[in-house]
Amino acid sequence: MIILNLLILVMGLAALVKGADIFVDGSSALARFFKVSSLVIGLTIVACGTSMPELAVSATASLEGADEIALSNVVGSNVFNLFGILGICALIYRLSVDHVILKRDYPVTIFSTILIFVVVTLPVLTGGKFLSLAMENKAGTVSRLFGVILLVLYFAYVAYLIFDAKKNPVSEDIGKSFPLWKCIVYIVVGLALVIAGGKAVVYSSKNIARFLGMTETLIGLTIVAIGTSLPELVTSLVSAKKGDASLAIGNVIGSNIFNLLFILGASAVIRPVSVNAASVYDMAVLIFGSILVWIFSITRKQIGRLEGIAMLLCYAAETVFAVIR
């Protein structure tokens, strides 16, 4: 069985890499076809596509009544996206940051995180029960109404991206030129390989980890959490390697916005999401991380190796804290 799982792991990794390569080529070509920036494609199609594992996990958790998982999955993936994925990409490839993403998309993800944090902790703060938060291990709730508000905010954001793209058409030289049908085929096939490869890696890794004696909790905090973000990681790495930093960064920031507004909003509409103390602490870390990465980006209009190392150290510290608590 261990040999079989090792084979599945290798095949899954191969599917991830090849799928991301095809997916990025198709996405870049689609940007050229519609004369929009690859940043816009990264923030929308690529971000939504690579976030399908998170959507599946959170939606399933809400349907089955495990609503706390819905939020912890979103927040945990966003922390890994910021610190882990951007940190790894910056460590290998220096990432130039488009001025548009600094003025528009970074503020959106910071605002979204703060909004959710305030809504779920406000009942505790106003009731003078902040100290009981840790003892009772619970905070507020993401209600169905707030879930609808989050969905409306997401669709308004996407509508603005489309309006702005039509208003300011561009012609980029990055990527290959394909007819529309071939762009769609590349995107669909690439995304299918990425998601299937990610599932294969998570499945085999969990079995190997159990064989090595790892606990279910530790497996959940490491392999499953990172596994659902593998599509974003591989896609961003391949984008950065191809010289398309806008697509790499847009994928991460767009995925975070999609996770916070669409996935959490849809999960809350299915069933109100209860928020425990751990998720509140993780949201505070996410706010800190979002602001920190924004500062890194705005100082020199790029994220370099030193910033990448700092971000990876932050993620390591957050992981250690999560395991200890």
Structural write-up:
- Helix content is 82%, strand content 2%.
- It is mainly alpha-helical and 325 residues long.
- α1 (2-34) runs antiparallel to α8 (180-211) and α7 (144-167) runs antiparallel to α11 (245-270).
- It starts with a helix and ends with a helix.
- Residues 128-138 have low confidence and may be disordered.
Major sheet description: 2 strands, antiparallel
DSSP helical segment count: 13
Order of helices and strands: HHHHEHHEHHHHHEHEH
Instruction: Summarize model confidence as the mean pLDDT.
Output: 80
Strand content: under 5%
Terminal Cα separation, in Å? 33 Å
User: From the helix content, strand content and strand pairing, which structural class follows?
Assistant: mainly alpha
How many strands? 4
Rough outline:
globular
Radius of gyration: 19 Å
- Residues in helix, %: over 70%
Q: What strand line-up does the widest sheet have?
A: 1-4
Flag low-confidence runs: 128-138
Task: Give the helices and strands, then pairings.
Blueprint: H1 2-34, H2 38-50, H3 52-63, H4 67-92, E1 95-96, H5 99-126, H6 132-136, E2 141-142, H7 144-167, H8 180-211, H9 216-227, H10 230-241, H11 245-270, E3 273-274, H12 277-300, E4 302-303, H13 305-324
Antiparallel strand pairs: 1-4, 2-3
